[in-house]
TrEMBL record:
Its cofactor is heme. Pathway: Secondary metabolite biosynthesis. Heme binds at C515. The keyword Lyase does not apply. GO terms for molecular function: heme binding; iron ion binding; monooxygenase activity; oxidoreductase activity, acting on paired donors, with incorporation or reduction of molecular oxygen. Keywords: Heme, Iron, Metal-binding, Monooxygenase, Oxidoreductase. This is Cytochrome P450.
Amino acid sequence: MVAVYLAFAVVILWFGRRWILSLLTPRSIPGIPAYPDPVPVLGDIPRLAASMKATNGFIGFMDKVAKDLGPIAQVRISFLNTMVVVTDYQSIDNILTKQTQHCDRDSHTIKAFRTILPRALISLPTNDMWKHHRRIIGTAMTSKYLSLTTPRANESVKELVNLWRRKASVCEGRAWAAEGDMESAALDAICGMAFGHSWGIIPSYSSQLVEGEYPTGINGEVVFDTVRPELAESTWAIFNSLPTTSSFPYILHKIRTLSPTYRRHARRLDRFLDAKLADSRARAESVGAEVAVDVADNTLDLMTARQLRGDDWMPDDEMKDEVFQYLVAGTETSGCTLAWWLKYMTNHPEVQRKLRKHMLEKLPEMQDRPPKFEDLNATNTPYLEAVVHETLRLSRTAGGYSREVTQDVTVLGKVIPKGCTIIIPTVTGLEDRSTPVYGPDPNALGSDSVDPDDIAERMDASLEVLRPGSAKRKVGFWKPGSGFNFDPERWLNEQGHFDINAGPSLPFSAGQRGCFGKNLAMLELRFFISQLNQTFFFAPVSDALNSFDMYQTVTTHPRQCFIRPVSWDSDL
Ligand code: HEM
């Protein structure tokens, strides 16, 4: 019997040898500098793992590859498609906005998100179903609908302000960790926009606060032990089960779903969404489809009203996925960006003062009422816009994104064949690889792996392709060496007007598969930042609580986000 199995295995190996070899040694693209060189087959994997660890994970590693090898580089790792790292701004813009027939959402991202959102935009290739969904929910990102949902964002800001006032009085000048509050406030706001009311996470934290002593952490910070309400807890449990870093997302997720805890959380959310859908449908039926479409002030109401009108039908399961996608795609991203903003403010008192003065001058009404949708934009409040864009640029909430090459495509004069994955690290917004004065870093990736002279030569060769006859670049360059500084002024021209094309930054990606929720995210950021800034001065925190180290989940988080908010007239 053993002999039969052995013979069978030999036959499989013989006929499958090409396939096995292709898994071990992904294809090499001629003319594009490569790391690691030679291709890592199994024996090189520990070396590769060490490089990734040293560079703070996958995106940090891709940043390093770009830094060493220039605006186009390839990474070949056994069992993965050949990855082409592109960090030339003009080419990125071209890939995302013009080469959409050649480059689509990559299959790894689709497989990972499909585990928790089987039929939502983020986990669909650009097919008819994606277009249908996009047409239906796209309306929710228009100014009309965003303006109707603005009161929900304002409610969440107000609740956060109340919570922080109470925490500040408990802390008496000591700091506390704020990212959890920020993400919860973002989730409250996004729930309001997705299905009409917040989950009240922040009010629940407020109600749990009691007068008296709270424990102190090792660096003198106050530690609050508030717990999340059940629905929020279930949402986080599902977020955290997202297998983004696994090579076998489906299997890993299937194993997770076997746990009774996971199933309890999934059932709770499903029951909630069913109930919301039924409420929404009853509301639409009671006023009639036409009126319902017109008065919808959240995405679920909008979808059910359009379904009732009969022009845009979507099955219930797909509607539930789309609404839950708001929570998955919109919470950690917005919360984490706002957490970075808190850090920048804590370290830049001059920016806080300038922003407050700017808002008082441009919108004195804010003293008496919360801002309206049309109050906050690049024309009315340019310095606020600059602070928001600078936060998005520097925080790199999305460390990068990718595209799968579906038809051969030419980038910087090199043909990238079908089947490869293009990786776009957002480091381009910090250190533009196509800046003519940019030079190679001889210490990068370790002297044993890449010869600095070789790097210089390869970079020059890559840039050579860029220069002659290349289309005029539509965005400017950041001043060399300034990319890592927090400096909102870089977005303003001499007249003080906001200039979106001042320099490279693509926090939301671009093109048809760029961030669907960009307008909603911008609304949230403008409303949270302007109102928190008007209410609080974020006083400096001790060095022990002020590290700028980061870690990555789906987004890039600060390891420490501690705040000491005080009122503007405080003498702290
Ligand atoms: C600061 C906040 C946010 C950032 C930095 C951000 C960033 C991104 C990025 C980089 C992508 C990938 C684009 C690509 O692959 O080219 C994306 C996709 C997406 N985002 Fe956001 N996002 C944010 C907030 C939101 C919010 C509030 C929503 C709520 C609806 C949202 C919904 C989505 C969806 C649905 C997709 C997938 C679109 C598609 O595949 O067609 N995002 N986002």
